[in-house]
Amino acid sequence: MTKKVLIVAGDAVEAQELFYPYWRLKEEGFEVHVAAPSKKTLMTVVHDFEPGWETYTEKPGYRFTWVDKEFREVDPEEYDGLVIPGGRAPEYIRLNPDLERIVRHFMERRKPVAAICHGPLVLTAYRLIEPGMNVTSYVAVSPDLKAAGASWHDREVVVCRDHLVTARAWPDLPAWMREFIRLLRGR
User: At 49, is the pLDDT very low, low, confident or very high (cuts 50, 70, 90)?
Assistant: First the structure.
């Protein structure tokens, strides 16, 4: 049977962190669905690291037209894995109570979860980071993860702990998806 993966996103999701896993997982033969607060075209953003800037810059990205479901319509039992892209979307989608229900299901049942960049903010919002858990993220998210008791790492491109795969940012996409696919195939 084909394994199913859910990607959760919203407006201001980092374009590459949504498009890359969407197409890469389909390429591997997985059935991929995207859920958002509402079923609409998502406005993505492009974060870049430019000389002279002490933080990333943000520009409008491509529109993502393949949202399958609203969070409230998702039955997480149907899915084998979860992807949480970064960008600014995690800041506001984590306020949706249906997203908590979805994410908690994957974490508590130890199904494969992939979170990148600002995506781990969703996990900290629901107190799903266990003390001592090895993780990574974009550096600006490290205080939140450390406050939750995590052991945050910056030197590793990807940190894989049991069922959770975290990565720093879009330059780490290939390694991040490679580890997530490995976990999905192992289930």
Answer: confident
Consecutive H or E run containing 57: strand 57-64
What angle separates helix 15-27 from helix 173-186, to the nearest 10 degrees?
40
156: its two tokens: 């590793």
Among 47, 105, 118, 153, the one annotated catalytic? 118
pLDDT for residue 40 is more than 80: yes
Domains and CATH numbers, the chain: 4-186 (3.40.50.880)
Residue 73, burial from CB neighbour count under 10 angstroms (0-12, 13-18, 19+)? exposed
Mean pLDDT of the 20-34 span: 98
153 is catalytic: no
pLDDT at 182: 97
Please tell me the distance from the alpha carbon of residue 103 to that of residue 185, in angstroms, as a whole number. 20
Closest to 14 (Cα-Cα) out of 183, 185, 172, 181: 172
Mean pLDDT of 108-119: 98
HEC per residue, 7-55:
EECCCCEEHHHHHHHHHHHHHCCCEEEEEECCCCCEEEEEEECCCCCCC
